Batch of 4 targets.
Target 1
Amino acid sequence: MAEIGSDVEKAASLLMQGELVAVPTETVYGLAGNAIDVNVVAKIFAVKNRPEFDPLIVHVPSLRNADTFVKEIPKKAERLAQLFWPGPLTLLLQKKNDLIPPLVTAGLSTIGVRSPDHPLTRKLLTALPFPLAAPSANPFGYVSPTSPQHVNDQLGDKISYILDGGVCEVGIESTIVGFTATEQAVIHRLGGLSLERITAVLGEVDVLTHSTSNPSAPGQLKSHYAPGKKLVIGKIEELLQVHPAHSSGILTFSQDYHSQYQRILSPGGNMEEAAKNLFLFLREFDTMPIDIILTELLPEEGLGRAINDRLTRAASVDNN
Ligand code: TXA
Ligand code: MG
């Protein structure tokens, strides 16, 4: 198992030596390594068992730190970074050279850049002379980790150190925003920064929906973010007529079904609280003696959109 501790200097020194370290962010834990060393980047793909067509996000202390590897930054990107960085927002910016190896970006002409909002990881990024490539610290296709224990459970035998920053505040991955040739903003992944907060600044933006093949962001693959148990979405009352309560997990937004295997995302109906609990609860269902998870969609507003996106993808996995 990996060592879990909050020693930023130790994490920095391991990263300087080309090791991988799991790091906390406000969204989910990342599996971090030196983004400019192709051998380290290759290790990230290997540890996650991630296909090389799925690009990694590069983490920087601030937008200025991206100047060495991205071309001129669109005005709208600049504006979003000003308002929402550090925070749960990834910007897809044009690469200007191969300082960040093509393996990181899966050969794409854009690079996903994010400045995460967690004090330990910010300290780490500031101390290091290179940016950190960091996908979510889970095996490819599985639910993202929101605590050091989640990382240890799945990747503990493959990495030596997990920087302990507690439970992730936001709990759902960053919102990914790209830009067209005419600098129109396009949302590639709904996430921890709500659509409403982005449209309040930029006006209407397109949202790419997920697909089953040839996605523009492979994390957009429809079957992704899946727990080990089969998950179905519908009206809980109706689902309970088909699936017996004694062998079903129930995941609701706020309603209580008084079932033994139930998790309520937010009894008070708060989207932020629901997002923070989502991945923890999906993991908990995996340890329960149930055959299936019954769940419902949340209202399509605020973080509810991103939560619904993850639930819909989890439901489209065939893992009977
Ligand atoms: O909140 C987050 O974004 C977390 C934390 C650790 O920062 N990271 C994360 O990384 O969720 P990952 O690798 O699990 O998901 C990154 C997503 C993938 O779906 C990938 O396809 C997409 O970002 N992505 C990265 N670079 C891209 C690019 N240049 N163009 C399109 N999609 C990109
Ligand atoms: Mg991921």
Target 2
Amino acid sequence: MASEEFQPLQGMSDLSSPEISIWHRIESTTRRVFHLYGCEEVRTPVLEKSTVFERTMGDTTDVVQKEMYVFEDRGGRRVALRPEGTAGVMRYIAGLGQDGNDARVYYIGPMFRCERPQAGRKRQFHQLGAELIGPANAAADAEAIAMQVQLLRELGARDFKVQLNTRGLSEDREAVVKGLRALLEPRRAELGEDDQRRLDQNILRVLDTKDEKSLPIVKSLPPMTEFMAESSRAYLQDVVSHLKRLEIDVVLNPRLVRGLDYYMHTVWEITHPALGSQDALAGGGRYKITIGDRAVEGVGFAMGMERLVTALQKDLGDAAAAPKLALIWVVSLGPAAFQENFRLVQTLRMRGVRCGLDLAGRSMKAQMRAADRAGATAVIIRGDTEMEKGVFVFKDMATGTQTELAMPELLERLQSVNLVA
Ligand code: HAM
């Protein structure tokens, strides 16, 4: 176990090679796919006034009540590290006025929730997400889901499942809460402790309980859509039909409510079996969020990138990583060859060849060992003899064969190995 001095804070991680290569592939694929759907990137600050999150996410949500990193800055202002991306984006969109009415944006970046660290739950994690602004429209909801599914397919994820439900409109809320309360209140004592608290504060959250004590009761409840107006049920059916037209399979899950307060109409989660008990790869839904005198309507989602990396490693193994350029190592026999090779390496890099060389004047054996350690595909060896003859010795590391090549052949050969390891 490395000394604590070298460790980041609990629940936070250094992201580095080799996994970072999977992150790169996720990020570049996200940018490309989301661009196809008309989204532009927005980068909002990581730190905001705490009210940005409190008013958007609802102050009875677990994230706001228990998990936000909130503190006073040096000027005595109450600020918070963003626990999710939507609230900051809504502040930004509301600030655009009319120009924000049909904005489509996406974001990629770190989020912070001071949760009890466990598998799949980090205190600093990363999300990629998108928000499609516009009034309630079942086709837009289907498009937001399609965007995520296309991303997952292009990344090569296989075993994911889209679960769909509706939260109805705010008008339905009262009937749903009343209906659920009538069924749950008589059985209050049989519910887990957290769910008894939710019964008072945010009854819908009882539905997505993970508490073994509450589960049998919750599973016996009718789907909450039964308490909703016909039009809300029809909206959900519209989303399902649109998705069918796009050949996207979904599973209706009447107990799915999502942990954030801003949703209305469609909500969904994408789950993946590689994730264990925290199996939500992504979550999203439609919302109407009021900021000052503006109401922003839209539909959006966020995907947990750590969880996505885990899912891709499970589905793809080594192929989860971004392909790398082959590495060429240049070995110098003597100081004169080093001078020439130092320049050669620069020239090759300018031609797009990924290469390296020993800068410390070590022995040939040490240089070959370094090439091996760095995972070089081929080595170019040059000493006084080669310089006199105007050639390079090209060694293929996989086969061990060595060939003497002049510059034009060397470049040709490099082009063929440079394609990707
Ligand atoms: P969320 O469900 O809170 O939704 O988070 C979305 C995803 O972020 C989760 O499905 C999960 O993969 C990942 N995630 C959340 N918390 C953690 C954690 N502690 N450690 C690792 N991964 C985590 C939202 O954040 C909404 N803003 C989504 C949205 C956008 N709805 C509308 N627009």
Target 3
Amino acid sequence: MSGQAPGKAILFGEHAVVYGRPSIAVPVLALQTVAKLEPYEGDPPGRLQIEAPGIGFSGVVDLDRPDASEAKALAMAVRLGLQHFRADPQSGLKLQIQSGIPIASGMGSSAAVTVAVLRAVAELLGKALPAKAAAELAFEVELLHHGTPSGIDNTVVAHATPVYFVKGSPPEPLQTATPFQLVLADSGRPSPTGEMVAEVRERWQADQPAMERTFDEIGDLVGRARRVIERGAVDPPAPTAESAGKGPNAGNDDGVRELGELMDRNHELLGRIGVSTPELDGLAEAARQAGAAGAKLSGAGGGGLVIAITRVPSQVAHAGNSIQSALRAAGAARTYVTQVG
Ligand code: PMV
């Protein structure tokens, strides 16, 4: 009776995605949330026992009217799952959450918890829940967290594959011709998604032409990043005597270099819309100094996550390790590594 879902990192296009521009996100399979749901015979139907110490809540709530704000999203996910399958449990239910994804860190913890709960409901009822349905139901819960979610978090977490995502359109899974490694650094400072999205909205209201221009620039670089991910380097340097004998992987090296440059540029543009901080700038710069091909804040900003890109370990021994050490020396609370492609 358990369901599971991974974390995520937004590679390109956060915030601009709320304004209709494309974005790219990848799952972080090393970080998972597990939800267990079972009947709780001691309680009448409509009661939900919750044990979720990692997200700050343990107690019993009314499924339709949870009082505690921390329990609202959990109760809603259970309720939506039951409604989706038109199920009417004959007793209360008990939900346990174990999450390896730090909360409010830009790694998709809230979407992962919701998708894991929805899958646990399906499992309890012996039903199948396709990723598309899980993503759509989880979007309803994302609306609780902030009023104008683009839907990227719930989509990438439910599909657990790299996606190219435009708000309101079906996600497009990406095949990666350019495999790469991401080093993730949790700044340890929470990233309040709702507040950051609201701040960007205020700036947009104050100067729409300037903000729209920046969003256009971000959208443009997301399109370029997609081409590099799917086809390899699009702008390789002229071959030199040294690179001539390198074989097919030479293109992948250049692809990672180009993705890194696009990440650096995306970070600058996120600074321009006001969501970076000196701390996040410092982490991104530390990763670049330690040999990353590029780095940027990821997610809502204000705190939360910085991601850095390197070639896969088979191509460059220990690069991920030295970047992780540099990020921790620059103040990261936790670091992780994940491979894409
Ligand atoms: O903070 P996160 O990881 O939930 O990322 C939010 C991404 C935004 O683009 C800022 C908001 C959204 O709904 O897409």
Target 4
Amino acid sequence: MKTKILTMADMTEAARLIQAGEVVGFQTETVYGLGADARSDAAVKKIYAAKGRQADNPLIVHVASVAQAERYTENIPEEAYQLMDAFWPGPLTLILPVKKGSLSTVVTAGQDTVGIRFPRTEAAIALIRQSDCPIAAPSANTSGKPSPTKAEHVKHDLDGKIAAIIDTGQTDVGVESTVIDVSNPSNGFTILRPGGVAKEAIEKIIGPVQVSKGVKDASEIPKAPGMKYTHYSPKEPVYIVTANRLGFEGAAAEFSGKRLGLLADDDKIAAYGEQFAYHFSLGAADDVEQATQNLFAGLRYFDELDDVDVILAQAYDSRGIGLAYMNRLDKSAGGKYL
Ligand code: TXA
Ligand code: MG
């Protein structure tokens, strides 16, 4: 299959492809998504095939209004409406009871809940509205690779495997949406994945929420590093460098004789860059939002290099968006800290 590269001007063509049961890459504010008609088993199966994704991992359904979300979900608690009101359109996915028969069971992996979100980019909203259907979309990367923040990342991973990519530029947030389970209020509300909407911002709206045990706070540095499964990883090992341990100088000394890559902010690169064979900037000093925006592009940059042995990456404080940054970096490093 030849993958077409489209722009906003080609939205009619993109919507026609979705209606024909094809898969289309499109920009959301978080990362690029890999979209298909969420009501069609055959269309949704093409997403899993293109990504190489496990069939038991459910997809997020994208809508372009609260009314559209209500067509596919039921028993929506008051707190969920408050979150929609505060953060939609935007990077927040709500796990809600699915309305039986309204969506393909391939999307929900047979579960009785569905993850639903209203993204805020012009491209995503136009695609959903013109296709006139809910759009199931995981991140548009090959499973295991860093999520795509540019159309060229999608092309790199999926060229020839999907019908089209709508290229509307780099994504704004840089990591995926926050996923919060609001499906059973009697159990409280639980963040399953930190992301573009900070826990603190959610708590301002609905009060205290839990964070799933699987989401480690970066302050709890593991004793046995490298024991975890990795995701978002370049082919070289990634180590997270924390200021209160070795620092970059000490960390670089640990690996003397190796070819090192540095993933850090401009100040760190100015200070330590000479000790490293390659470096990629996360942006201005101590700007965690910029670092989050640039993280996946940086991990992809190193993945493409053939002559780097080890990557040392900068830790940030895990408040606000920093929780999502550290969560993704921790997965990419498989929990290895220096
Ligand atoms: O920002 C995002 O959320 C991006 C853009 C494209 O919208 N999408 C995205 O999708 O990150 P994906 O498939 O890469 O990640 C979806 C996450 C997975 O961890 C999945 O297990 C979880 O959401 N999820 C989806 N449906 C769920 C459900 N019913 N219950 C629990 N977790 C669910
Ligand atoms: Mg993903």
